[in-house]
Amino acid sequence: MGNITLIKNFLDYLIIEKRYSVHTTVSYRNDLNQFNLYLSESYSGIEFHKVEMIHVRSYMVHLLEAKLAKSTVARKVSTIKSLYKFLKKEQLISSSPVQLLETPKLDSRLPVFLKEEEVVNLFEEFKFEDSFSGKRDKMILYLFYQTGIRLSELIGLKNVDVRNGELKVLGKRNKERIIPLSNNIQPLIDQYLSLKDELGFKKKYFFVTDKGNKLYEKFVYRKVNHYLSIVSSKQKKSPHILRHTFATHMLNNGADLNSIKEILGHENLSATQVYTHNTFQKLKSIHKQSHPRG
């Protein structure tokens, strides 16, 4: 069985059995096609079942010499490891040649988030346009900050998902979760939906463009970047910053880590614990300023 066929079978497994998203599967496909191309050019097209650890180590060096970020190299190696787990599961190999392979050590980076005063400036001081687009944009920012949902989850929201003070979210691997909404967001929802109906935008999706079509990633990125540029000088101004901000502000104000994990839709608590570092940094700063021997 050739490498191209094995890649196809692996991707089918990810989609059908693991229920991975199209976006994730495309990333896996690109990584494996690049690895296969390297094997073709450097090792005369060696087949996957004959690959040894030395071949993958050589590929890692090739990627690092090409100035790829360590995080990118680590992801590509992780993809290769996943492929060999699949091949072993299907009994196409007896052992994985990369099971003990170590990935490049990543530089630890804390999540970037907005200060609380920047959020106040955004929602209380800044005046959004009194129009459909203005109310929609404010709703987008509010939901990102008040619920911590992902970009793909916001775009996929349907009208029936926003009701009775709750938000029903379809997360990664089609897992549903319910997020409570605060009382102060309901008037914004009512105003937005009223304007949406007046304009005849009857689509099932909750958020739509100025022409009534479903939102897309670049549209939301552009909007969030525009508004965050007004209140913050931070270099990164993506929707994910608002997810980080939600989690960090919740922790800073005493929320339980497990509760935040459930709201964010994390599978493991370790993914949520990264936000405790930001909280710890804040505590250190307060201690330094307040303690007589700080």
Find the CATH superfamily of the largest domain: Intergrase catalytic core
Parts with pLDDT < 50 across at least 5 consecutive residues: 290-294
Share of helical residues: 55-70%
Order of helices and strands: HHHHHHHEEEHHHHH
Q: What gap, in angstroms, lies between the N and C termini? A: 66 Å
> Structurally, how many domains make up the residues?
2
Strand content: under 5%
The structure class reads mainly alpha
CATH topology value of the largest domain: hpI Integrase, Chain A
As laid out across the biggest beta sheet, the strand order is 1-2-3
The general outline is elongated
Average pLDDT over all residues: 87
Question: What's the number of helices?
Answer: 12
Please count the beta strands (DSSP E, at least 2 residues each). 3
Global Rg: 23 Å
What is this structure, in a nutshell?
With 294 residues, the protein is mainly α. The protein has helices at residues 3-16, 22-42, 53-65, 70-89, 116-125, 132-147, 151-155, 186-198, 217-231, 239-252, 257-264, 269-290, and strands spanning 162-163, 166-170, 176-180.
Q: Would you mind describing this structure in some detail?
A:
There is one protein chain. The chain has 294 residues and is mainly alpha-helical. The chain has 2 domains: 3-89, DNA polymerase, domain 1 (Orthogonal Bundle), CATH 1.10.150; 116-289, Orthogonal Bundle (hpI Integrase, Chain A). Helices cover 58% and strands 4% of the residues. It contains 12 helices and 3 strands; from the N terminus they run H-H-H-H-H-H-H-E-E-E-H-H-H-H-H. Strands 1-2-3 form a 3-stranded antiparallel β-sheet, with no helix packed on it. Strand 2 and strand 3 (176-180) form a beta hairpin. The longest helix has 22 residues, at 269-290. It is elongated and about 65 Å long.
